[in-house]
Amino acid sequence: MGSLCLADYRDYAFEASKRLVRSVQQMGVPVIYFGVETAGLLGEMASTGADVIGLDWRQPLDEGWRAVGHSHACRGISIPLRFLRR
Fold first, then answer.
1. Tens-place pLDDT, residues 13-54
2. Dihedrals φ, ψ of 33, to 5°?
3. How far apart, in whole angstroms, are the C-alpha atoms of residue 59 and residue 36?
């Protein structure tokens, strides 16, 4: 998803994502919606109704949560520590 601009996400991916989220939720399973480099799409991703929005490690948690809206849960993805060890 990260390679889509907001307009393309809305035109080509949003409705399908929303249908998929709803279908999975109907099975009683919570949905974590995660994409890479999606800072500009977070608000739309939250609009799918997913239970949790995953934030790319490049997205500061406070900014991501603000973009998603405080009524949604967010999950931050950290840089794996093994990449920091040398």
1. 999 999 999 999 999 999 999 988 888 999 999 999 999 999
2. -105, 115
3. 10
- Residues, the chain, total? 86
Per DSSP, the residues of 31-67 read -EEE-TT-GGGHHHHHTTT-SEEEE-TTS-HHHHHHH
d(CA 67, CA 84): 28
In the chain, the amino acid numbered 28 is G
Residue owning tokens 């809206």: 69
The structure's pTM equals: 0.82
Q: Which two tokens stand for residue 64?
A: 């991501």
Q: Are 53 and 43 in contact (CB under 8 A)?
A: no
Q: In whole angstroms, what is the distance from residue 77 CA to residue 35 CA? A: 11
Sheet with 52-55, side-by-side order of all strands: 32-34, 52-55, 73-76
